[in-house]
Amino acid sequence: MDKKLNVIIAGRMSYKDALELQLETQRERLEGKIGDTLILLEHNPVITTGRRDQSHNIFVDPEKVGAEFVKTSRGGEVTYHGPGQVVGYVFINIREYRKGIKSYVSDLEEVFISLLKEEFSIDAGRDDEHRGTWVGNTKITAIGLAINRDITMHGFAFNVKPDLSHFQWIVPCGIQDKGVTSLEKLLGYEPDMEEIRQLVIKHFKKVFSYK
Fold first, then answer.
1. Which class for 107: exposed (0-12), middle (13-18), buried (19 or more C-beta within 10 A)?
2. Which of 11, 177, 191, 193 has the greatest number of beta carbons closer than 10 A?
3. In what order do the strands lie in the sheet with 46-49?
4. Is 208 helix (H, G, I), strand (E, B) or coil?
5. Within a 10 A sphere around the Cβ of 129, how many other Cβ atoms?
6. 193-207 vs 101-120: helix axis angle to the nearest 10?
7. pLDDT in tens, 35-73
8. Is 200 helix (H, G, I), strand (E, B) or coil?
């Protein structure tokens, strides 16, 4: 049977509203009310952390710079999300996926390696020590996930055209000796967000073998 993917384009919202949407979607996937689902959206400016304390990696008062601050259940360290990113939240049954968590993360990375190479002739790859998709020494896609009763949540944040100066508010993912880039910076012009969202869907379906 061909695998099918439910795709929701949710627009722009606060991180807290998106978190509620994630929890609801994860619960529905767990109960079998929906199939595998990918939610694509943009966030208002937000600094998020995983389960560990990250105060030493945050250089601003989020409230004073107009950003939310949210501590989440995902793995990983501090991240920034904001307008100009394609953020994707993925809800699949990791047991049905049958390849393991490391392969799942590797496939998320591959979505953007494939997209950048095939659509824009940009060579991207992986870093042996740090998850995500990298162009040289700069990260273009951050990845973080959590799993509850075999159902994934969280996912990826692809830097299409965010304000890169906002990443100076933090040490992104706790990595001090590497940088952050965007598709806009690499191309030298402003990409169309809707076009990029459709390319993300295209390559996600290809890598994960959805119909």
1. middle
2. 191
3. 68-71, 46-49, 79-81
4. coil
5. 7
6. 130
7. 999 999 999 999 988 776 777 888 888 889 999 998 877
8. helix
Among candidate residues 19, 40, 173, 180, the one labeled active-site is 173
Structure token pair of residue 62: 């989020």
Measured between alpha carbons, how far is 203 from 10 in angstroms, rounded to an integer? 19
State which fold the 6-207 domain adopts: BirA Bifunctional Protein; domain 2 (3.30.930)
Matching residue, tokens 């496939």: 107
User: Alpha helices of the chain — where are they, by DSSP H?
Assistant: 15-30, 94-97, 101-120, 183-187, 193-207
The domains of the chain are located at 6-207
173 is catalytic: yes
For the chain, helix (H) and strand (E) counts, in that order, are 5, 10
